[in-house]
Structures are given as C-alpha cells and as structure tokens.
Amino acid sequence: MKKDLCSISDLTLEEICHLFSLSQQLKEKVKTGSLTKLKDKIVAIVFEKPSLRTRVTFETAIYSLGGNPIYLSPSDIGLGKRESVKDVAQNLSLWVSAIVARTFAHTTILELAQHANIPVINALSDLEHPCQVLADFLTILEIKGKIENSKIAWVGDGNNVCHSLLLGSAILGASLFVATPKGYEPNREIVNKSLALAKSSQAEIRFTNDPVEAVKNREFIYTDTWISMGEESQAEIKKPAFAGFQVNEKLLKNALPDYKVMHCLPAHRGEEITDEVLDGPHSIVLKQAENRLHIQRAILAELLK
Ligand code: CP
Ligand code: NVA
Questions:
Q1: Ligand 1 centroid distance, CA of 218 (Å)
Q2: 255, 219 in Cβ contact below 8 A?
Q3: pLDDT class of 34 with cuts at 50, 70, 90
Q4: Which of 112, 188, 228, 279 has the greatest number of beta carbons closer than 10 A?
Q5: CA 196 / ligand 2 centre spacing (Å)
Q6: Residue 24 annotated among the catalytic residues of the structure
Q7: CA 123–ligand 1 middle distance (angstroms)
C-alpha cells in the first residue's frame, strides 16, 4: 500500500479486498484482547471539523490495537493559521506514528502527506471521504456477498462522499447511477478519473438530474446531507435546488423490492431523508456506522505495520 490514504483511489482492487478480509480477521481477534499491532504507538487525530463516528471509531480502533490516540481539535492547532501545514506535519512526524486528519481543503490532506514521513489518513476532506466509502462497500459485501455489479443509486449532492463512492465503484466494479440537481454534479476531475478506472473493472457509472430514473430497479439507495460541513452559509440557496431529491417512501417505490437505504450520517431528518425511511426496515445506516470501526482498524494495522 502507499504511505498515505488521501483518496480511495490510492488503493488498488487487491488492496481494498485485502482490507476487507483483514477487517474480518481483526474483528474476531479483537474479542480475545490479544491485538498489539499498535503497541507503544501514538496516532494524532487532527480535526478541523466536528465528528461523532469518525473520531470515536478511529480512537476505538487505535485503542483496540494497543495504541493511543491524541485528539487535536480545531482550536488546538490552528492548522495553516497558527502554524503552517508543513510545520505541523514535520513536527508531528517526530513524535507520533500516523496522522488521521479531517480538513476543509483536500489540499491540506495532500500537504500533510507530502511533508509528514508517517502515514496520513484522510478522515474527510471537502473532496473525499475514503474511510466512509470503504466501510460502505464492506457493508454491501456483507449483505450481498459480492460488490461487482451491485446496483447503487446516489441521490443528492455531488459531494465528498459521492466522489469516494464514484471512485470506489469504479475500482470495485459496482454499478453506480448518480442523481444530482443541475449545478450540483460531482467534480469533473473525479468523474473523469472514475470513468477511466471503470474501463478496466467494467463498472457501470452513469449520471442524471432525475432521482426517479436513478433509483429505478436499484438495490442500494444512498443519500447524504444537502449542506456539507463548511457550506452552512449556502443553505438557503442550496436547499430549494434539492426539492424532489428527498429519499422517501414515494421515491423508493421505484427501487427493487428488497432495496437497502444507505446514509453516511449525520442525517438531517425531514430534509434529504424521512424518519420512516431512516428508521425503517430497509435502512442499513447503523451497519455502515459499525463497519467504520472494523475497516479503520484494518487500515491502521496495514499502514502502520
Ligand atoms: N459519517 C461520518 O463521517 O460521521 P462523523 O462526521 O460524525 O464523523
Ligand atoms: N458530506 C458530509 C459528510 C459528513 C460525514 C459533510 O462533508 O459534511
């Protein structure tokens, strides 16, 4: 594996499959309390944005491997403000074994990776959320037994999670139909990279501005907030553009009968998803959240071995 996990496309198909099987092995081994892969290792968790799942699952994964996390909140470091990203990366490299970073700009993740001589893991940037999507594909694999050709629909914003889902689908050979409102399509470079990767995996990647078209005969329906962290000031402009993109019972009538609903969380109930869908029998959102822990334990074990 590369030194860092900045993008899901830093991983090959084989490496992702290895992480899936390692996550299952570690899940069993952790029950015996015998994991020591991170013994005497400290991992810095550098976050510019809030988090529930990512922080708790990374800290728990680190402890369960015998290591210790140090959480550094936005006000602790002032990344790029109090001190340059380069200086932070070089200093942290003196004391800890890895950096798990959640940033606004994706370039901050890349800059940390460039100047740190320890692994840097992207725990969400404005461009990508690779750990989330690895957990999501692990979830699909557990439910379906395979990922190839699984029919996924993305309904909502062409955001960071959508970008990692595009790249991940392209690497893993899934079929992904992305529906976004006009003007909120995914990043062009990510789209082009996904289409290029899809050529070798035979993944089917399609785009539309019609949520009904995207959901038709799909097995996995995935949505996320319309207003990502850092976009709060755009809420009043963005929200009206997403009318018709709510994942509700009516939209889901178009999906396959045994469809599953996915959401990375946090959810904005009554906006991108209704209570009845999020809490209903087709929802697999808690399985996704649980798998964050298992896949991140494998990522840490692999990058820090
Ligand atoms: N899905 C996810 O990354 O959640 P948090 O923002 O709570 O970490
Ligand atoms: N797109 C969301 C994901 C949160 C986990 C955001 O960036 O806020």
A1: 25
A2: yes
A3: confident
A4: 112
A5: 26
A6: no
A7: 9
pLDDT at 161 (0 to 100): 99
Nearest CA to ligand 2 atom 2: 228
> What band does 235 get if pLDDT is binned at 50, 70 and 90?
very high
DSSP for 56-74?
Answer: HHHHHHHHHTT-EEEEE-H
Indicate if ligand 1 lies below 6 Å from the C-beta of 265.
Answer: yes
The finding on whether 155 has its CB within 6 A of some atom of ligand 1 is no
Task: Give strand pairing partners of 120.
Answer: 99
Query: Edge-to-edge strand order for the sheet containing 175-179?
Result: 204-208, 175-179, 151-155, 220-223, 260-263
Please tell me the distance between residue 50's alpha carbon and the centre of ligand 2 in angstroms.
Answer: 10
Q: Model confidence over 61-105: pLDDT tens digits?
A: 999 999 999 999 989 999 999 999 999 999 999 999 999 999 999
* Annotated catalytic residue 292: yes
Q: Which of 6, 224, 288, 296 is catalytic?
A: 224
Which pLDDT band, with edges at 50, 70 and 90, does 165 fall under? very high
- Residue 129 a catalytic site member: yes
Asked whether 224 lines ligand 2 (CB < 6 A), one says: yes
pLDDT tens digit sequence for 270-303: 999 999 999 999 999 999 999 999 999 999 999 9
C-alpha distances in angstroms, 251 versus 9, 13, 158, 256? 31, 33, 19, 11
Q: Rounded to whole angstroms, how far apart are CA atoms 163 and 56?
A: 23
**CB–CB of 168/133 below 8 Å?**
yes
Cα-Cα end-to-end distance for the chain: 11
